[in-house]
């Protein structure tokens, strides 16, 4: 199984950005733990702050991976283009959010991704990524 984790804007700042909301661990450190924990799964990681680059990577993933774990961050609530890309590709996408978006500002309650995602995992901190990986491994 080959899975790609795609993180959107500002998630490159994990570990320093709003640690009360997002924790104190960088995603790179956490990703190393995921690779160790899920040794039999080939995990790759991509992060960009640029909407078009996220769309390009989703389209490329369709030919390279069995699934995508997508945390589009703020673009979740604003990007019809990312939502359309999720709909257009032929592999499943699990939408992930570190925080509980429904306990935050009202504008974070809308997702342009959810309707076309295999599933949604929200609010379990970085463990949301573990849960998403497991969702691909459960038969």
Automatic annotation (TrEMBL):
Pathway: Metabolic intermediate biosynthesis; chorismate biosynthesis; chorismate from D-erythrose 4-phosphate and phosphoenolpyruvate: step 3/7
UniProt keyword list: Amino-acid biosynthesis, Aromatic amino acid biosynthesis, Lyase
Domain of life of the organism encoding this protein: Bacteria
Xref: CDD domains: DHQase_II
InterPro entries named among the record's database cross-references: DHquinase_II, DHquinase_II_CS, DHquinase_II_sf
Record site: Transition state stabilizer: 17
Location of the active site: 22, 97
One of the GO biological process terms: amino acid biosynthetic process
EC number: 4.2.1.10
Catalysis: reaction(s): 3-dehydroquinate = 3-dehydroshikimate + H2O
Pfam families: DHquinase_II
Binding site for substrate: 71, 77, 84, 98-99, 108
An example Gene Ontology molecular-function term: 3-dehydroquinate dehydratase activity
Subunit composition and interactions: Homododecamer.
Family note: Belongs to the type-II 3-dehydroquinase family.
HAMAP family attached to this UniProt entry: AroQ
UniProt protein name: 3-dehydroquinate dehydratase
Originating species: Gillisia limnaea (strain DSM 15749 / LMG 21470 / R-8282)
Gene: aroQ
């Amino acid at each position: 199984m080959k899975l790609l984790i795609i993180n959107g804007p500002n998630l490159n700042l994990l570990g320093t950005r709003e640690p009360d909301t997002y924790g104190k661990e960088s995603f790179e450190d956490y990703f190393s733990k995921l690779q160790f924990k899920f040794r039999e799964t080939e995990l790759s990681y991509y992060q960009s702050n640029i909407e078009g680059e996220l769309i390009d990577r989703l389209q490329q993933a369709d030919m390279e991976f069995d699934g995508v774990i997508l945390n589009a961050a703020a673009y979740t609530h604003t990007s019809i283009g990312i939502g359309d890309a999720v709909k257009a590709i032929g592999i499943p996408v699990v939408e992930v959010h570190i925080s509980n978006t429904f306990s935050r500002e009202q504008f974070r309650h809308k997702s342009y991704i959810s309707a076309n995602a295999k599933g949604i995992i929200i609010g379990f901190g970085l463990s949301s990524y573990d849960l998403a990986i497991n969702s691909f491994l459960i038969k």
